[in-house]
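Entry 12.
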Amino acid sequence: MARFRPGKEVAGEKTNKPKDTPFKQQRMKAWEPILTPKTSTRIFLFIGIIFLAIGIFWLVVNDQVREIRLDYTKCHEIESYDELEVMPPDNVEKKFKASSAGQLVDQWKRSNKSLTFDGVTKNYTLCTMEFFLPEELQPPVLYYYRLTNFHQNHREYVNSRDKKQLMGDSVSINAIKSSDCGPLKTRQTEDGSEEIIFPCGMIANSYFNDTFHDPIRLPSSSGSNQTHTYNMSRTGIAKDIDRAIYQSSSYQIPAEAGGNDTVIVPPPGWVERFPNGYHAGNMFNPAEDESFMVWMRTSAGNRFAKLAMRNNDDAMERGMYRIEVISRKAQGPFL
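Predicted 3D structure (tokens):
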């Protein structure tokens, strides 16, 4: 049986009763707009005009972009060796106002290129592509590489780095083991010791390592019979905020290859570039590698393009060009 016992508030005792104010007692004046058909039409028309203006602006900006895409993914599968053949139409995309009709077709070929890293020489696929540029490109001219079906937005992948290590600190092995570098924190050496991976993490390990050469303008039938290299720079491609973050490493390294007075090793995906590990003659410096800075800024989707080279001063003249790419498949686990 429920009972009700009347009482009164004792002076000095706390109470949960809200104060008698318009705000606490919900007596504040409120505005409840009534949207008539005329008012609703005006609002939607105003919002539509704003978005229409934004859309027109981006269409105009996009229309000023001139672009050519060359897909060399399957260049290593070309049956013929060192012989130019027509590129499949699906591998070439051009966005120009001028037409390429009546000009030489775009071609490619597969050959080999030897690269030597720290005294160790290996052969890689050299993909040569020749294409016609129907319009002169005004500076800045930007050279991107584009990847598809590569998920840089995976949570574990995005966090897989140690910021202090990239800022030049000689982070201890215990600190690295407790970091977010995932499975790529340390490596066992041949003598059984455990050494720190620098730079640690899956992002650095999957660093895109194809080599791009400057475009070369080929001789034309009506002009000069000499080739001309269109020089592009690999500096100035990273954001200022990134260049301010990356610093030279303060880890101790041996003076020559084969020394054992070091606590760091390259990531497993970098073994071909550093076959003898780090030493004074080849130590990786993230503060000087802007391509590495660009790669470390992960993308939100599984299709993305990253800046590789640029030319801010010179126009790229109309004509036939050749570009060469050394294709090197990245090694080691990503995720």
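Annotation: Helices lie at 37-63, 155-158, 163-166, 173-177, 202-205, 240-243, 290-296. The radius of gyration is 30 Å.
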